[in-house]
Amino acid sequence: HAYLAYIDVIRWGEHGESDELKAEAQRHLEALGKPNPGHSHQRVAAAYLRYFSGDAKGAIDALTPIAKEATIVAGALGIIQMKAGDLQGARATLRDVTDRGDVRILQSLAELYRRGGSGFELAAITMYDSALNRSPDHAPSLLGRAMMHIGQDEFNEAMNKVNKVLEMGPNASPRQIAMAHLLRGNIFFARNNKKEGMLAEEKALLDG
Q: Which pTM was predicted?
């Protein structure tokens, strides 16, 4: 129940899939009953459910005291802090567990560095590459790395990563497919191909 609740709430809240997944996550958590200190997935799923339901503070408060108990807990705390806008807190939390090689943590830290803008590009690229070395088909890392390629006018490399996401079919979420189309449009516009750029943006709106 704990792992299924975790997967369902991520698919619903982070990937934008069906609201039925939220209901499924709630049912799994209800079946588990009172939070068990030994069930990290249960506690993380409950925190993500609170965050994606609009209670960022409650989610952060629930995870902060137990962040050092397991990598997945610290990773979830850092990701929620980042999504809630506490970039400094998220960076500190995620840095503490980066060496454990969790792909979601590596990608999230890369995202933090990417958002840092000028001066953080190399750190972002390093983290994205580390994530992709761990999991070559990790869609969020492919999309983030594509953004870095676009920022450096490396359009062929960017298009290769974007196309890889588009070729994943159901293994990529609707939001990830929409972002891939949007980035594809950005690449076409950068190449002065306005027609293909507009078509790609239209696909992004349809899939998003």
A: 0.87
